[in-house]
Structures are given as structure tokens and as C-alpha cells.
Amino acid sequence: MQDFTALDGAILVDKPVGPTSHDVVDAIRRKFGIKKVGHCGTLDPNATGLLIIVLGRGTKLSERLMGDDKVYEGTIKFGETTDSYDCDGEITASLPVPLLTLEQLNEEAAKFIGDQMQMPPMVSAIKKNGVPLYKLARKGIEVEREPRLIHIYNFRFTDYTEPQGQFRVACTKGTYIRSMAHDLGQKLGCGAHLTTLRRGASGKFDVADALPLDTILKLTTAELEKRVLPFLKLAANA
Q1: Active site (catalytic) residues
Q2: Which fold has domain 70-120+147-201?
Q3: CB-CB contact of 77 with 188 (8 Å)
């Protein structure tokens, strides 16, 4: 059996606003000349935070790591609905925001806790007949989507200053937080969309232990090796 190298494992990246998760993979692959690079759970371009990047033989663990529960923090703006359910989309409706308190928001948020079937947004990477939904959405095409079973462990607002509320959510993989924002806005009758999102944790891994992408891209290969979570340690946590 081939021995593991210092670049077989994973690194924890704190993704900035702007690049896609695939852009991060490409940047690391090009910088360090690593043939096999992948990520464990997509973050939208507008989202920041923890992105687990698997390297070399660490890519064999990507499915297991992708299945871990996630923790997010973010901001929802009430009174405006967008076609993508976040601030990257076009505003499709604008309505007055009712008088809301933090307590009222948390009463509504608590109704999301537990198992539920969630409808993925049209602007997503889910594929229909091999074509990502977001590509169809750009052409103005809307197709039927299959709802997915997700579980919300906790959903709570920590601050509210009209029209924006700050929240924290713990959930299973595959949960669309922007769909939660959209659905909450519909329940309140005023519409809403996600304005910021940051992934704080995935399974046992925390963004506090991650390095910003620009810092990683300034490392030498030897410095990167010291940051890699070894394959065997990763497998024990997966």
C-alpha cells in the first residue's frame, strides 16, 4: 500500500465573498500543483466561512465529510423578495414590513425546527436532466423540483433592527438557508431574502481553525503541509 504524503488530507479555508467554492479549489490546485483537490459542501459566492478543501487521497473522504451537520450565521432582510432568495437576485416583490419584535421572529423561527421537506430554489446547482438549475433560471425557465428532507436543529434570531434580522441556524447537509429566509418572509406576509451568510462549523470542524484564502495562497508548499489535516486523522473524524 502506498504511503500517505503530507498533502493527503484536508485544509480548512475561510472563504471570502466573491469566489465560488470551485474557484477556491482551482486556485489551490494551481498554486500548489496538486492534481486532486475537492471541497466538502458548496458555499454560494456571496457566502463566507468554513470550506473544507480535500487534497490528494483526502478526496476519497469528501462524501463522508460533506454529510456532516452545519452551523451558519447570517442576516435576513424583510420586505423584499428576490428570484434567487438572496441579495444576488432581482427583486420580484416589495411589501411593507409589519411591526416585528425579536420575540415574534423567534416564535416564527421555532416553527422551522425539526424534520421538513424543503423545496430547493431555482437558482441552485442541483441538476435537472444534467443541467444545473441556475442555468435554466438565467434563461427564465422554471422547472418542477423535488422537495428534500432536511432537519433544523436550531434556528434563532439574535438581533433585529427593521428591516434586518441576524440569525444562527444549525442544520443537516443540503439545507438551503436562503430558502428558509424566503419561506419565513412568506409566512410573515412581507417577503424576505438572505443578505449575508457565514458557515461557522461543519461536523467537528470550526471556522476558528481555518485560514483566510488569501493567506493560504501566500504559503509555500512546506508551510501548507504543516496546515494539512492528515488523512488518517481526517478519516477518524469523518
Answers
A1: 44
A2: Pseudouridine synthase (3.30.2350)
A3: no
In angstroms, the CA 235 to CA 229 distance is 10
Domain 9-67+204-237 falls in which CATH fold? Answer: Pseudouridine synthase (3.30.2350)
Q: Report the mean per-residue pLDDT for the chain.
A: 91
In the chain, CATH 3.30.2350.10 sits at: 9-67+204-237, 70-120+147-201
Residue 34 has pLDDT above 90, yes or no: yes
Hey, what's the cell of 200?
Answer: 461557522
**Does the predicted model carry a pTM greater than 0.85?**
yes
Residue 44 binned pLDDT confidence (cut-offs 50, 70, 90): confident
Instruction: Judge contact between 62 and 8, C-beta under 8 A.
Output: no
- DSSP per residue, 32-51: HT-S-EEESS---TT-EEEE
